[in-house]
Amino acid sequence: MKCTLAQVTGFPYYGYMNITLSLDDDLVKRVRKIAVERDTTLTGLVRDHLEKLAVEDAASGRGRREREALERSFEKFQFRVGKRTWKREDLHVRS
C-alpha cells in the first residue's frame, strides 16, 4: 500500500499513521503467536486485515453504485422487471 499525503492543521504528513488499540492481553499473546507462525508481526497482521477490508468495501460500494445506476436506467427507459410470464420452451419454438 502506498503512503499518501495528508494535510493536518497546516502541515503535511507523509507516511504511515500510528494508531493505538486497546486489546485484551490474552488476545494479543495469541495473535502474536499466529504472527510468528506466519513470519510477520502483529502490526503486519492488522495492516493486512485492514487493507483487505478496505478493498472489499470499495468493491461492494462499486457494486452498489453499478446496481443503482442500472435501476435508474430501468426507470428512465421504463423497463418493467417482474415475474416471468413466459416459458423457456416458448422462446425456442420452431415453425
Structure overview:
It is a single chain. This protein is mainly α. It has a domain at 22-79. The protein is built from three helices and two strands. The chain has a two-stranded antiparallel sheet. Strand 1 (4-8) and strand 2 form a beta hairpin. The longest helix is centred in the middle third of the chain and has 35 residues, at 42-76. It is elongated, with a radius of gyration of 25 Å. The mean pLDDT is 82.
The total beta strand count reads 2
Helix content: 40-55%
The major pleated sheet works out as: 2 strands, antiparallel
What topology, given as strand order, has the largest sheet?
1-2
End-to-end Cα distance:
61 Å
Figure out the total of helices.
3
Order of helices and strands: EEHHH
How big is the Rg? 25 Å
**Beta-strand percentage range:** 5-15%
- Molecular shape: elongated
By secondary-structure content and strand pairing, the structural class works out as: mainly alpha
Note poorly predicted spans. Answer: none
Query: What integer is the average pLDDT?
Result: 82
Give a quick set of tags describing it:
mainly alpha, 3 helices, 2 strands
Summed up, what is this model?
This protein is mainly alpha-helical and about 100 residues long. Helices cover about 55% and strands about 10% of the residues.
Write the layout of secondary structure elements.
Blueprint: E1 4-8, E2 11-15, H1 25-37, H2 42-76, H3 88-91
Antiparallel strand pairs: 1-2
